[in-house]
Write a structure and sequence with these properties.
Elements (H helix, E strand, L loop, with lengths): L6 H14 L3 H6 L2 H8 L6 H16 L8 H5 L6 H12 L8 H10 L7 H12 L4 H14 L18 H5 L16 E9 L6 E5 L10 E2 L2 E3 L6 H13 L2 E14 L4 E13 L10 E4 L11 H15 L10 E2 L2
Parallel strand pairs: 1-6, 5-8
Antiparallel strand pairs: 1-4, 2-3, 2-7, 5-6
């Protein structure tokens, strides 16, 4: 959870997750929808899918005990070079480095490296941690980067490595490592359909496993193309995805949301099917779900805001008018 999430944000999720899955065997036996639902809101959902897959492998092939070597850990889904190094050194005392973003910054400044290669950084880190108490040394470097060797305004005066730091000696520690030039963040308009049947159930579909937000459920829809109106985009997407013709009605609400590399504004419209029966063109699951059963499914955050608004409107007294909202991320 901490790979992409701050400690204060991850803690409540961690507590709920461990309560639901106290052992590897519990996690391995769980349904992926349950796992994703407990992960909902943390983002980077591939982490949850990989964690679930890794638990199944550990339960089936390692007797429920996490393998203790760096090489074996690398074979598990979702465990890369950094994570394998962290687990192997901290949990099992192996003499291997664990270079995260904070450690990369510490090493780049200590050795005054502009654009260090990952393999070179791991080599340098191994020199610093030595062979005794490697887990403690790795954690010390992580903590140093997180609390002292900050991206801006590093606290060089209290740094225990200041005597040998080449960046500090050069008088410009913030110059290292060289900052990457970021391209402008693109923005997309996305149109989705709020489709309900005669029983009041809502139409939802599952996202492809390997796609962004893979395995989560969502309202059907997609990106607006150049020259399209939002209503036209909504009708086209439902036709392409679910093989149904719809009449697009009023806007339910719009939601702005930011992902790591792009931003969206999601527009949800009331839609009525005029022809066809919903069937995924890609062979993905499609379901009609009652509003009070939506909590059993994991949705992307922007979708969840729309669903929460629909549920709130359903519970609103009859003499009150629902309010259309434009809610930010």
């Amino acid at each position: 959870m901490l790979q992409q999430t701050r400690v204060d944000q991850a803690l409540p999720y961690y507590t709920r997750f461990v309560a639901a899955f106290p052992t590897v065997d519990h996690l391995a036996a769980a349904d992926i929808d349950t796992v994703l639902r407990l992960w909902e809101g943390l983002g980077y959902y591939a982490r949850a899918r990989h964690l679930h897959q890794a638990a199944q492998i550990v339960a089936a092939q390692h007797g429920g005990a996490l393998p203790g070597t760096y090489e074996e850990l690398l074979q598990l889904p979702g465990i890369g070079i950094y994570t394998a190094g962290a687990i192997a050194s901290i949990a099992f005392g192996a003499a291997v480095p664990a270079v995260d973003g904070n450690v990369r910054r510490v090493l780049a400044r200590y050795f005054a490296l502009d654009r260090p290669r990952p393999a070179h950084l791991r080599h340098l880190a191994l020199q610093l941690i030595g062979t005794e108490r490697c887990g403690d040394s790795n954690q010390a470097l992580m903590e140093l980067g997180a609390t002292v060797c900050l991206p801006r305004g590093p606290r060089c005066a209290v740094c225990p490595l200041r005597a040998g730091c080449k960046a500090r000696a050069a008088g410009e520690p913030e110059r290292f490592p060289a900052r990457r030039v970021r391209a402008p963040t693109p923005h997309y308009d996305v149109a989705a359909g709020v489709v309900r049947n005669a029983l009041g159930q809502l139409l939802i579909q599952r996202r492809p496993e390997r796609a962004l937000l893979g395995g989560l459920w969502e309202l059907p829809g997609g990106k607006r193309k150049r020259g399209e109106s939002l209503q036209e985009a909504c009708a086209r997407e439902l036709k392409e995805e679910l093989q149904v013709t719809v009449e697009v009605g009023d806007l339910v609400m719009s939601v702005r949301h930011a992902y790591t590399h792009f931003r969206i504004t999601l527009y949800a419209f009331h839609c009525t099917i005029t022809a066809g029966t919903p069937l995924s063109s890609a062979g993905l699951p499609v379901r009609w779900v009652a509003l009070d059963a939506l909590d059993a499914y994991a949705f992307p955050r922007a979708n969840r805001r729309i669903l929460d608004a629909l549920v709130a409107a359903e519970r609103m007294p009859m003499d009150e008018e629902p309010v259309q909202r434009n809610r930010g991320a």
